[in-house]
Amino acid sequence: MAPYSFLRRWSDRMAPVNQPKDKKRERACQHWSEEAKSAGKRKRDYGERGNEKQEKKLFVRKASRPSGKIGCSGGGFVMRNKRVLSSQLERRCSIVHYVYQKMLGGSMQAQLRQVRSVSFRTWPGDSLGDIKFSPYEAEKLYVASGDGTLSLQDLEGRAVQVISRALDCGHEHHNVCCWYCSVDVSASCRAVVTGDNVGNVVLLSTSGEEVWKLKLHKKKVTHVEFNSRCEWMFATASVDQTVKIWDLRNIKNKTNFLHLLPHEKPVNAAYFSPTHGAKLLSTDQHNEIRVYSSSDWTKPQHLIPHPHRQFQHLTPIKATWHPRYDLIVVGRYPDPKFPGYTLNELRTVDVFDGNTGEMVCQLYDPNASGIISLNKFNPMGDTLASGMGFNILIWNQEEMAAKKHEHLLKAMTNEEIEP
């Protein structure tokens, strides 16, 4: 079977990926509304805590080598029986193939693990609240910075263009009491939206001309995002414990929202699903991930209990979507107070099914045991980057398969098994 034939077989059953044509943009919003209705009735899991018990783990814990078992303790692999040796030449597929194979109850012959770690540091100076690539020039980034500026940075070293600057507070020991925390760019509207630490949201043209500046939240705006399938819709999330959905064509004040989604805790992020834009994924600062659907914005379609509590010196944990399927990926920060907590619980990357709210699998490598705050798939969805401290972890099936083959050869040698 070809590497991606499994995914193609499921493409009709999973989230749609067809893009609306530019000349039919007016039909985009109708499209995502219909897709949401076809997802089925809401699962009765609001307030329930059963998802954690049904988890299927996709990692192999690091363990010593008991007698009668073969494996490689250094890499964290333990083979339960000799039958796994027959699969040493397993095909190299994308990460999603193995996730969905696990969802269907299939045998996980290949275990995903972290395969590369690279150094990563920000620009000198203040912290960065958010970054977004320019949709027009691949070498440029929109950067929301703690120094009170929203700028267009050039990766090739050309001059930085400051397109918005917070007001100077005039205090003796510092001059910035207000700074930008989030940013997003709409290519179709040629617009940039940014939010600051006191609740203001600013809409600008991509060239930096301010369209309006309104106080849309009571407190810090942690996230802003345009809906990629409906150009006039965007969402904002805030530590005031709300997510708001707006019509870009009709904003006058903070009460002009289309929908108000109240939360029990401050909210770190609110992402529209990239496949159809009909779902919204929010992450609070404690232990809830919510999935809302356009069929009924007034209540969560799924509420997923998950430990990811906020910590002062930790990058806020944010759940994100897979680019082509309704999969949710999020880092775990084990909490002794969380229901179902186990002693020495691992800091995994957890993957959930966005259509059911149930856990699909967990990714873990014993050589990279830190807290993973941010996760992002590449556009094809076959490689995952995870942010952990000053490192970025790259999860890639092809390189993992080569490592697995190496471990199998060592195992056969150690057990004196002829290939």
UniProtKB/TrEMBL annotation:
Recorded GO MF terms: damaged DNA binding
Record localization: Chromosome; Nucleus
Keyword match DNA-binding: yes
Basic and acidic residues biased stretches: 20-38, 45-54
InterPro entries tied to this protein: DDB2, WD40/YVTN_repeat-like_dom_sf, WD40_repeat_dom_sf, WD40_rpt
Record's GO cellular component terms: chromosome; Cul4A-RING E3 ubiquitin ligase complex; nucleus
Entry keywords, A to Z: Chromosome, DNA damage, DNA repair, DNA-binding, Nucleus, Repeat, Ubl conjugation pathway, WD repeat
WD repeats: 214-256
GO biological-process terms attached to the record: cellular response to UV; DNA repair
Region (Disordered), start-end ranges: 1-54
PANTHER family: DAMAGE-SPECIFIC DNA BINDING PROTEIN 2, DNA DAMAGE-BINDING PROTEIN 2
Family named by the database record: Belongs to the WD repeat DDB2/WDR76 family.
Protein name per Swiss-Prot or TrEMBL: DNA damage-binding protein 2
Source organism (scientific name): Lonchura striata
Gene name of the encoded protein: DDB2
